[in-house]
Amino acid sequence: MAITGVLRPGLCQIRVLDMAAAKTHYIDRVGLDFVGEGPDGRVYLKAYDEFDRHSIVLRQADESGCDLFAFRVARPSDLDSFEQRIKDYGYTVYHVEAGEMPGVGRRIGTVIPSGHRIELYAEIEMADRHPPITNPDLWTDEPHGMRPIRMDHALLYGPNIEEVQDFFEKALDFRCAEKVMLPDGLLATWLTCSTKAHDIAFVKHPEPGKFHHVSFFLEDWNAVGWASDIITRYNISRDIGPTRHGITRGTTIYFFDPSGNRNEVFAGGYTYYPTDPTRMWDETELGKGIFYYEQQLNERFLTVVT
Amino acid sequence: MAITGVLRPGLCQIRVLDMAAAKTHYIDRVGLDFVGEGPDGRVYLKAYDEFDRHSIVLRQADESGCDLFAFRVARPSDLDSFEQRIKDYGYTVYHVEAGEMPGVGRRIGTVIPSGHRIELYAEIEMADRHPPITNPDLWTDEPHGMRPIRMDHALLYGPNIEEVQDFFEKALDFRCAEKVMLPDGLLATWLTCSTKAHDIAFVKHPEPGKFHHVSFFLEDWNAVGWASDIITRYNISRDIGPTRHGITRGTTIYFFDPSGNRNEVFAGGYTYYPTDPTRMWDETELGKGIFYYEQQLNERFLTVVT
Amino acid sequence: MAITGVLRPGLCQIRVLDMAAAKTHYIDRVGLDFVGEGPDGRVYLKAYDEFDRHSIVLRQADESGCDLFAFRVARPSDLDSFEQRIKDYGYTVYHVEAGEMPGVGRRIGTVIPSGHRIELYAEIEMADRHPPITNPDLWTDEPHGMRPIRMDHALLYGPNIEEVQDFFEKALDFRCAEKVMLPDGLLATWLTCSTKAHDIAFVKHPEPGKFHHVSFFLEDWNAVGWASDIITRYNISRDIGPTRHGITRGTTIYFFDPSGNRNEVFAGGYTYYPTDPTRMWDETELGKGIFYYEQQLNERFLTVVT
Amino acid sequence: MAITGVLRPGLCQIRVLDMAAAKTHYIDRVGLDFVGEGPDGRVYLKAYDEFDRHSIVLRQADESGCDLFAFRVARPSDLDSFEQRIKDYGYTVYHVEAGEMPGVGRRIGTVIPSGHRIELYAEIEMADRHPPITNPDLWTDEPHGMRPIRMDHALLYGPNIEEVQDFFEKALDFRCAEKVMLPDGLLATWLTCSTKAHDIAFVKHPEPGKFHHVSFFLEDWNAVGWASDIITRYNISRDIGPTRHGITRGTTIYFFDPSGNRNEVFAGGYTYYPTDPTRMWDETELGKGIFYYEQQLNERFLTVVT
């Protein structure tokens, strides 16, 4: 297929209450690599198999949550065309100068009606510790911690998610791979700009701008088990798992960083093609959709967000 | 990203010498589902997780090999635009009427300079036994045999593969995820129209139109081991594996169908994005590129094709 | 080590309310092989990797539960010496004639103070579908359902478990691999006659003779995941899992047969040697001991028994 | 069963040509823990899940190979009874004083007719970094390198292996779980003192006292794959694998330490009970017995020993 436009999730900036504890969590336990610390104290991290300079940004703050979720686009000129499309859709576009994050080019952004900052950027430096390119080994240094392969997606909670879905489809060329329709409307939607079952997802929630989780991709179900072992061994606060989602089919475990932000590590999930039908869930089997083994919802999973 | 143009491999028509033996192999051992037999005796098969009516076509013939490898495109109008682009590139386009295969719309094709028939089509019926869509379980019937998820790609052998790569890149919007450059030129190229490390691959070979293997995607390394157990238990002729490729990183085992056509089942492999560099192998580490554990080539793997 | 005396769990006779439903469950879903039906209607089943004629016996009854749990001893003469040792310990021994179960030699038994019938036998016919012996393949027919390797152990609930532990240690040469000591005494004990972390286990419970679960051994954590998929797909009533036990370290999922008897399928667990210390859990970490990931008990797991 | 006599392999003393290279290999790559270095320069290592002070002993020497392979017995008095039984069998017993290895009690030994030193000991200190006992986590520090669970067994090459088998069975209460009988006699035998498929194995070879490999137990097939990745990444000399043995059914990969001593890491294998028949292989399927997937022998595997 023609590989154009929005390529993939690239940056997730997370607010943490205690940077030292956050670094231990994301580096030693989750297993990200430390890239650097900026002059404003923000800490930049990446997964071992990512080419780009960084993907996770930690910012010390008084309140936890997610500042912004940004997608990389294929070409600098895409920023201009998406700016026009976003404006044509009726949303306001803001600009972030190149260098606001070290190694990252200019970004454009908009606040979507669920209350989240969604940004696009085209340029980012290649990481010093990028995956090998010439006669490449699988990795240079052994993956550590939970051995995450990449930052994969985020799930955001907020109001107006029908509008949000429409915006992602019409202005950014995403598709809906899977959704939950209740008698009173759309409860949740899994949106993809690629062949992954989701690159971003939204759940209907009264309070705007809330962060449910950022997710890291693992190799397989064995790696989900290994992550589970680490979570208990190091007394990381677990939410739910290891289990499987009916939706996306991913195998998964959820836990919290020391600031209360939820993380997921997951594996698997189907490959989505645009010729595939959108998978649909309704109220009769919603529990199975969310947690395929438990077949019931976990109150904390539905209500605790940052 | 905008999901347009050539989406994915869709059809692989294989010549078999003994249809009964081929059916036992592909259905009972590899684990495809039987879809139907056409009036001309061709047998249609699919993997359990494919929506489309069929992906593998078996044709009884006096000589084994691959008749054609076809990609599904996003929209019927894409067939017209690709026809023009192929002609503009300088190749001849042939047409296959809708219904030549049951349930498949019209196809266009060209014979590329490696001697292979490559086709495009936009329409195919949804399979009766498609993956569930509403409140979907993982599967309806337990996957059987080697439990392949989908027909994934083919590797073809022939001359002029620099030209072939250029054609796929310029006329069909593929990208080269990985390649082997020897002092005397391109030995092999892995081409993708998606974010898979390869949707089709070519190796330089003096004789045109040769078929190295068709590959089926498995869940993980455990499934590769399970396939290996089946191969020995049922005296299926093994080529090499279980092992891993340095190139694409896939874990894999190769074996032959009763007609001598090579099959692969594999798992894993990295996700390729167009912002990624093309991975490059040279003569110093070629063995490791092909078989990461053995670090040496297997004469049979290089020379036996159908 | 000298391999003498009580070798391993061999027979578990389970009461079921609906034999047809039980057969579907244990054969099609759990994946045992059907061996035969006796003249009294009892149904005999085995796991694919067991040499002995059968291991699970289903008996139609008005109340679910476990009739008896029997261990195979090394030699017929062991039955005499254990009879003497049991009597010397102060318990009554009953006798069951050879042939009471088809293919099984004479058994001796005793009702232990937790209220359970524990039996010993030395002779049982080799199964018709035993694992191959000469130039053996891994299996003859592909394992099906959850692909259990063997009936592995049972967990029984009842009073007086300190006495029960003492009896198993002194009269039957078992050892305690792991136990839970609460301020008011022994809550649970895992007893082994081999190098497995447990061949039988007991939990303190006011009502005598209760059956918590019979457990089947799987290959690995991947197989636990596969069993979990089957459980949801076929609407089998799940108790808890997939998870891991801190105690024994086994990875596991629990579910119920259609009569309400609990089953476990599990994998892993440490190898226990008699020079190893007995692992000890106390009230501060009991939740983690039972369910390593959840770190908390599940009321149903503690109270629902048959 | 009564757990008496010879319990399990406990010590393997390996001669290495370059201690620094050996330490990097066994500690950083294989993943053993460093325990200490003795006054005579010997280096003591252990796997993370072993309670005993050490299991692998490295000794700098001019020639690689294995000095001795020792089994732990249940009680000090067993040393006296086994001394008598070995003498009664007609072999000479030698004595090694307590403290010859730090933390290890007195040992008795004999040189068996294959030319190997086989020893027994009853006492060894518990390791400082032993597996946790009270409210035990799975591990204290994350397993590293290939993550071996324990030193598991050795395969030794030498003459007179029928006699050796007889000695192990009659004097030490081992059993033969599996063997290869060729028209000219016993080629190989897998002997167990437990329920493992092998605690030691012998292959007929003209030269006495040769060392084929020491083997470390891994969690599962995924861990065998991980070990394979490490072997290639760090340019460790591989012999064969990842593959599976027909004999014992273990999944495996073989490689060499920097001194040319062969190592194995493996997973799986059946549980052997004394009521099981001895599995038998003959010349018609020997290739499959040794390497289940390749179904053919590897000259290096048969002839390269230290």
TrEMBL record, chains A, B, C, D:
Catalysed transformations (reactions): catechol + O2 = (2Z,4E)-2-hydroxy-6-oxohexa-2,4-dienoate + H(+)
Lineage top rank: taxon: Bacteria
Residue ranges of every copy of the VOC domain listed in the record: 8-123, 150-268
A Pfam match: Diox-like_N
UniProt cross-references to PROSITE patterns, sorted A to Z: EXTRADIOL_DIOXYGENAS, VOC
Alphabetized InterPro entries for the sequence: Catechol_2-3_dOase, Glyas_Bleomycin-R_OHBP_Dase, Glyas_Fos-R_dOase_dom, VOC_core, Xdiol_ring_cleave_dOase_1/2, XylE-like_N
GO MF entries: catechol 2,3-dioxygenase activity; ferrous iron binding
Annotated EC: 1.13.11.2
Co-factor requirement: Fe(2+)
Keywords noted in UniProt: Aromatic hydrocarbons catabolism, Dioxygenase, Iron, Metal-binding, Oxidoreductase, Repeat
Keyword Repeat: yes
Oligomer status and interactors: Homotetramer.
Assigned protein family: Belongs to the extradiol ring-cleavage dioxygenase family.
Name of the protein in question: Metapyrocatechase
Natural source organism: Rhodopila globiformis
